[in-house]
Write a structure and sequence with these properties.
By secondary structure, this protein is mainly alpha-helical. The protein folds into 2 domains: 54 residues, Arc Repressor Mutant, subunit A (Orthogonal Bundle); 129 residues, Orthogonal Bundle (Tetracycline Repressor, domain 2), CATH 1.10.357.10. The longest helix has 23 residues. It is globular. It has 10 helices and no strands. Helix 6 packs antiparallel against helix 10. The relative contact order is 0.12. 70% of the residues lie in helices and 0% in strands.
């Protein structure tokens, strides 16, 4: 079976996909269909076991068509991760009228719950975090920035500098505990407890 060079991780030069704003409505719809198919795999499987041809088949497009829109497997799945994260962002806007501690707990508990519902996503996130494709890296950085912004909306009424520090600490606690969970070192209940405790310590 032949594998496309971009799927093998070949760093050779390739034409960059066209900018999103240059695509026709039909092309955008096809691109979104491909991302939707990739998202379905992202939440169900380890990416090491997913091939681009499988995503192409699910999306109903030719394998070559995939590479008109995405430079590599990492680029495609970084876009799928960003799409998955939008679900979390849509939930973030719903927490009002609570103390900062309670709001932080709500934010980070929702994040833990998202990974609990789709266990493969965290391991896939770590793979994409280490991607070498510059386009995948750019999408991942956009994903990370938007997640930080989403968390920050839970504590809008504190000094911006302090808020940034709080989000950095909470996100570090979340990441460290999710890593232990993904490796089987701690139950998911331990992750919930860790983010709760961190919120309580930060706000006394």
């Amino acid at each position: 079976m032949t594998t496309h060079p971009a799927e093998r991780g070949d760093d050779g030069e390739r034409d960059a996909p066209p900018a999103l704003e240059t695509l026709s409505a039909r092309q955008r719809a096809r691109r979104e269909r491909i991302i939707a198919a990739a998202l379905d795999d992202l939440i169900r499987y380890d990416l090491d076991h997913v091939q681009m041809k499988d995503v192409a088949a699910s999306a109903g497009v030719a394998l070559g068509t995939m590479y008109r829109y995405f430079s590599s497997k990492d680029h495609l799945f970084a876009e799928a991760l960003a799409a998955w994260a939008e679900r979390f962002r849509s939930e973030v806007t719903g927490a009002h009228g609570k103390t900062s501690t309670a709001r932080l707990k709500t934010a980070y508990r929702r994040a833990v719950r998202a990974f609990e519902l789709h266990p493969p996503v965290y391991g896939n996130l770590l793979l994409l975090q280490a991607a070498k494709d510059p386009l995948a890296t750019a999408v991942y950085e956009r994903f990370a920035t938007r997640q930080t912004e989403a968390f920050a909306k839970f504590v809008p009424n504190i000094d911006p500098g302090l808020r940034d520090d709080v989000i950095n600490v909470m996100s570090a606690v979340l990441d460290a505990n999710l890593r232990d969970w993904a490796r089987g070192r701690t139950p998911i209940a331990g992750v919930y407890a860790a983010v709760d405790r961190a919120a309580e310590l930060l706000f006394g």
